[in-house]
Amino acid sequence: MSLVFTGKYWSIQRFVSGFANNAYLVTCTRTGKSLIIDTPDNPSELIDAARSTTIEAILITHGHQDHVEGFGDVASEFAVPVGIGADDKSSLPDSADASIDVSAGKRISVGDITVRAIATPGHTPGSTCYVLAAGSDETPHVFTGDTLFPGGPGRSSSPAALKQILESLESHIFTLPEQTSVLPGHGEFTSIGESKREYSVFAAKPLDPDLSGDVTWA
After folding, report:
1. Do residues 61 and 129 lie in contact, with contact meaning Cβ atoms separated by under 8 Å?
2. How do beta strands 10-17 and 2-6 pair?
3. For 6-26, b where at least 16 C-beta lie within 10 A, e where not — what string?
4. If pLDDT is split at 50, 70 and 90, which confidence band does 7 have?
């Protein structure tokens, strides 16, 4: 399954495989240079599409198995540098060229497009979101992995982890322009504006100190 978004400077293709995981191929329309975001199981369709571009980087949102299960196949096909949060790096094979620095604020350029890394710990210690910005006349997009979905945050392993996700969202994600498209690691898309409106309902209530797991804003 492939869904294409086309802007003035880029195209985004989505591929659904693995545990209903989204993987993305982001391509500069002028140069044909591209990057891959996440590598779930059975990435054959992703690989086939990527062959028609010049892959320059693989970016991983976080180290959970369902997002890296197809990494070996993708990395075997495209021997390019990889970016993943430092605290999730152990989820990749030792042979992976994890040389792209995706610490907070770092920028990765591919052709005419730039992706900015945002450290968003909580779902995992090394969870990282990536903001695509290609020009002032483009709608920005943020690839959130399992940090943010329509209707709620990613699953948290403890109350402390939930608080960390909420801090990541409040400090770094909900500060993005409201028109920013949210492209998560599973499921359908939303926007920052809609996510903030949903979150306001949740934030208006006292936070249960024992709350964690699969949390919804409603």
Report:
1. yes
2. antiparallel
3. ebebbbbbbbbbbeebbbbbb
4. confident
What is the average per-residue pLDDT within 148-174?
98
CB count within 10 Å of CB 5 equals: 17
Pairing between β-strand 148-149 and β-strand 152-153 as defined by DSSP bridges: antiparallel
Q: CA 138 to CA 195: how far, in whole Å? A: 20
CB of 10 within 8 A of CB of 26?
yes
State which H helix or E strand residue 71 sits in: helix 71-77
Judge whether 179 lies within some domain.
yes
Local structure of 190: helix, strand or coil: strand
| Average of per-residue pLDDT values in the chain | 95
Contact 87, 125 (CB under 8 A): yes
Residues of the domain holding 41? 2-203
Structure token digits, residue 117:
């890394």
Asked, for residue 173, whether it belongs to a domain, the answer is: yes
Q: How many domains does the chain have?
A: 1
- The CA distance from 14 to 16, in Å, is 7
Q: Is the pLDDT of residue 122 over 90?
A: yes
CATH number for position 133: 3.60.15.10
pLDDT at 75: 97
